[in-house]
Each structure stands twice: as C-alpha cells, then as structure tokens.
Specification:
single chain; alpha/beta; 7 helices; 5-stranded parallel sheet; Rossmann fold
C-alpha cells in the first residue's frame, strides 16, 4: 500500500514513518507547510527533514511554494479557528497530491503530537479524502511521541520550539498578559 505522509518536520516524522513501514506500507513524505513563520523557521524545518529523509531512505516531495499569505488570509480575524484553517490548508493539499500521485491513501505526522487537535485533524482529513476521492489513513501516533522526541535529541536533529504559525510563536515566546515595554 502506497501512502503519502504529510510531514511537518523531522522530529514528528520519526515515529509515524517507522509505524507505517512496520505495517508494510510504502511511505513517501510530503512537505507542505505554508503556515510556518518566519521563513527562516520554514527553511530550518525543511532542511532538517530533508537530511533525516536521506538518512532513512524516505522518498520526499517538497512543495516548492511558501504561500504564507493564504494561511494568514484564512486565519486573520479567526484566530480562535486558526488550527482548523491550518489543518484544512495542508490536508486538502495533501489529499490532492496523493490522488494525483497515484497513492492509495494519505495521512499526516500531525497525529504524533499530543498538542494537536486529533479529532479535528481526523474530521478535516476525512473531508479532504471525500473531496479528492482518496482514503485518509487515521492512526493515533501519540504513543510514540516521547520516544521520537528522545531519538531526535540523540540524533542532534533541529527541534522547533513552537507549532509553526505566527500565533503559536507568540504564545511560545510572549507570556500571557505581557504589556509592551517602553524603551
């Protein structure tokens, strides 16, 4: 079975790729993440994933675009729904890529993180699958999160400190209730 695995970064790819391969699937990674901000962070994640993929002989498709504006247009004034916008943007694109690439199904490494909204990912993945006429492969990869985190550290893999979007970056580095500091 050929599966296209939407990949957000190297560390989050470790456990899902291992699991899917153990199940006998032929895995191809797909990097499409226009939500990641700033661009330098996008490049760091892409390069770290590319290096890891080469080490484990994982075929990758890297989307050449960085369409941050599309994510921002969907999220601005809807900040409380930004994850829905983000998941939909990436999963609908992954479903389309899987269908046009002749894959049997698609999934996402977002499903490894205990910090992501799994039911929302499943809902959007299934809707994208219906729209594009392909199967969304849902698996709860969260049991492997800690193991993958430890392995990525041992490997010296680049590890990001926030989910990816400008809003998550703010939440990570700007404490709640922090006021502007006058200089």
């Amino acid at each position: 079975m050929k599966i296209l695995l939407h990949t957000c970064c190297g560390p989050c790819s470790i456990y899902p790729v291992d699991c899917l391969r153990d199940e006998g699937m032929e895995v191809t990674g797909y990097f499409f993440n226009p939500n990641i901000h700033p661009y330098t962070e996008f490049i760091k994640r892409k390069e770290a994933l590319g290096k890891y993929a080469a080490e484990i002989d994982l075929e990758m498709i890297f989307d050449s675009g960085y369409n941050l504006e599309e994510f921002l247009r969907g999220a601005v004034y809807r900040e409380s729904q930004r994850c829905r916008v983000c998941y939909a943007l990436r999963l609908y694109q992954a479903a389309q890529e899987a269908r046009s690439g002749g894959f049997d199904c698609f999934s996402t490494t977002l499903l490894v993180s205990p910090y992501q909204k799994h039911e929302l990912i499943r809902e959007i993945g299934q809707a994208a699958a219906v729209k594009h006429g392909i199967t969304f492969y849902y698996a709860d990869f969260r049991p492997g999160y800690r193991e993958a985190t430890a392995r990525s550290r041992t490997m010296g893999m680049y590890r990001q400190q926030y989910c990816g979007c400008i809003y998550s970056e703010k939440e990570r580095y700007c404490p709640p209730g922090k006021k502007d500091v006058k200089v």
